[in-house]
From TrEMBL:
InterPro entries: Sugar_Epim/Isomerase, Xyl_isomerase-like_sf, Xyl_isomerase-like_TIM-brl. Pfam families: AP_endonuc_2 (PF01261). The lineage of its organism: Bacteria, Bacillati, Bacillota, Bacilli, Bacillales. This is Sugar phosphate isomerase/epimerase. Residues 51-262 form the Xylose isomerase-like TIM barrel domain. Keywords: Isomerase. SUPFAM superfamilies: Xylose isomerase-like (SSF51658). Gene3D superfamilies: Divalent-metal-dependent TIM barrel enzymes (3.20.20.150). The keyword Isomerase applies. GO terms for molecular function: isomerase activity.
Length: 320
């Protein structure tokens, strides 16, 4: 008899729990996971081009690039609403972008203030366009080296200044753990839960997971999803090569099972591909010239593969 590897044992335990749920509560599977897409990786293209691509692929939700870096910059509310109606799309949330220039944990107070002001603009935009969450990264992406040993404390202090805004506007702050190659702290679901506990405010209670980061930082992606539980409001996805779903070797089936086990399909929560390609700092992708053929492949391949695997898992054909 072959001795199973540790990850296989964990896979099988999630599969066992999922099969029990499937048998005991089949009615819970009438609703599928909500599929969104994060558009900031599309590069420097018009919002209408992005909307056209997603509409053509049959995607109903979009996570919009939080590009209001100043009072005169970013998508207009009026134009965004017009396009949403025209292409029959809804906003899942807004992807907050945090670099060294707007860093909640910075040792430069001006950059902390820039992060606070940025969040204020994006909370307002998220509410106006009907989004349910705003992604928050506690420290700068693309800066893996720590300033000092007080980053966590400064970030918590910074977010306290805007925590009431989330509550007042009914927007969920989705704290994202990011791999150590890209940020200096908050790398795991446990780190994000600890951050939420330290903030200790009703306005900061949710997590934005990312399967690509999880494969680097977590012992097991499925277990990390179960650990996040009710905190998890959005899950970014990319395959093992940070490409389209189905183009790598990530275990999509176990991820799907874990999401159903936490009843992800029964709340306002989203699976949101964000295939950005490998590298330590993905932010340059937002400024790149769009390769339409490549982007169309990323979207079409990801949505078709995910739905194929989801249907396969739920109908039981992959569980024999």
């Amino acid at each position: 008899m072959r001795l199973k590897q540790n990850y296989e044992r964990k896979d099988e335990e999630i599969k066992r729990q999922f099969c029990n749920m499937l048998q005991e509560s089949p009615g819970e599977f009438s609703e599928r996971l909500k599929f969104s897409w994060s558009n900031w990786g599309f590069g420097f293209e018009s919002l209408e081009d992005s909307f056209q691509r997603l509409h053509k692929a049959g995607i109903q939700y979009i996570e919009i690039h939080g590009n209001h870096y100043g009072k005169d910059l970013g998508y207009s509310v009026q134009e965004t609403k017009r396009l949403l109606q025209h292409y029959d799309l809804n906003v899942s949330g807004v992807c907050g972008m945090f670099s060294a220039e707007n860093d909640l944990s910075s040792n430069d107070p001006r950059k902390r203030q820039a992060a606070i002001d940025y969040i204020k603009r994006e909370v307002e935009f998220t509410k106006e366009v009907g989004g349910s969450y705003l992604l928050i990264v506690p420290g700068a992406v693309g800066r893996p080296q720590a300033y000092d040993d007080m980053e966590l404390e400064r970030s918590v202090d910074s977010i306290h200044h805007v925590a009431p805004l989330f509550q007042q506007n009914n927007i969920k702050a989705a704290v994202e753990p990011v791999r150590a190659a890209e940020v200096s702290f908050v790398h795991t679901v446990s780190d994000a839960v600890n951050y939420i506990k330290k903030v200790d405010h009703e306005g900061i209670q949710h997590i934005n997971g990312d399967a690509y980061h999880m494969q680097s930082e977590e012992e097991h992606i499925g277990e990390a999803i179960l650990k996040a539980g009710d905190h998890l409001i959005n899950l970014h996805m990319a395959d093992s090569n940070r490409g389209a779903l189905g183009d790598g070797h990530m275990d999509i089936d176990t991820i799907i099972m874990a999401l159903y086990l936490i009843r992800f399909h029964q709340k306002e929560a989203f699976v949101t591909p964000e295939p950005l390609g490998p590298g330590g700092d993905p932010y340059p992708a937002m400024h790149a010239k769009p390769d339409q053929a490549k982007l169309n492949h990323l979207v079409q391949q990801s949505v078709s593969y995910f739905r194929e695997r989801e249907e396969h898992v739920i109908t039981g054909k992959s569980l024999a």
